[in-house]
Amino acid sequence: MDMDRRTFVGATAASLCAAPALGIAADPKAAAPELYELRTYTLKPGKRPLLDDYLSKAYIPAAKRHGAGPVGVFAAPPENDLLKVYVLVVHRTAETVAGLPTRLATDDDYKTAAAAYLAATADDPVYQRIESSLLTAIPGMPRLEVPDASKPRLLNLRVYESHNERAAAKKVEMFEKGELAIFRRVGLTPVLFASATVGAAMPNLTYLLAFPDEGGRKAAWDRFRGDPEWLKLKALPGYADKEIVSRITNLILTPAAYSEI
């Protein structure tokens, strides 16, 4: 059984690491791409303090003990009295993705710290549901770049959905061949760029940007829209949004005080 599990995990890791290449031969000297689990908690009213206590005192310390992390926690503005909290967990191997739930279930320190959260009853739950997706870093940014968590910051989470895999690969190519460099130059500071490997709204490219504040975010996007290199790039054949991007989700997120990202 142990050998079968190791074989399965190894095969999964190989497939996940190969996923973002999308037909492009990998550079053997390149760093293996990180994996990101992005969870969305849709909370019941008044349950944010309980989730914060669980994440900060139980989940994040335990995840790091078992090889995952850093972990980012961000909230979106409430909609219709529903608060969504996004939890981003960094994994360096598929083994930690697959193995973390089992390790948490047998971690006594975790279970003690998580007791109040885990004791929630069916008639008073913490959340409606948890939605989760698994992302694989693109070759041009194989590692998450952690912003300075000691400073005030705003996060911008964007998801570019495409109508098929070819179009999704073209959007990744566009970032690889110039758009990501333009982002950096104009102040659209990247935290991660990744392709969805498992989850909803596939295929998609998901990325996260960091800004000092809302004014900085708006100014950086204005610089980007008028940048001469960007105007040239988007005019190239095959790179028009209408050809390769079918839907964009744009979220402005505020990090929790204990967020590591």
TrEMBL record:
<dbReference type="InterPro" id="IPR012577">
    <property type="entry name" value="NIPSNAP"/>
</dbReference>
<protein>
    <recommendedName>
        <fullName>NIPSNAP domain-containing protein</fullName>
    </recommendedName>
</protein>
<dbReference type="InterPro" id="IPR006311">
    <property type="entry name" value="TAT_signal"/>
</dbReference>
<feature type="domain" description="NIPSNAP">
    <location>
        <begin position="36"/>
        <end position="136"/>
    </location>
</feature>
<feature type="domain" description="NIPSNAP">
    <location>
        <begin position="156"/>
        <end position="259"/>
    </location>
</feature>
<dbReference type="Pfam" id="PF07978">
    <property type="entry name" value="NIPSNAP"/>
</dbReference>
<dbReference type="InterPro" id="IPR011008">
    <property type="entry name" value="Dimeric_a/b-barrel"/>
</dbReference>
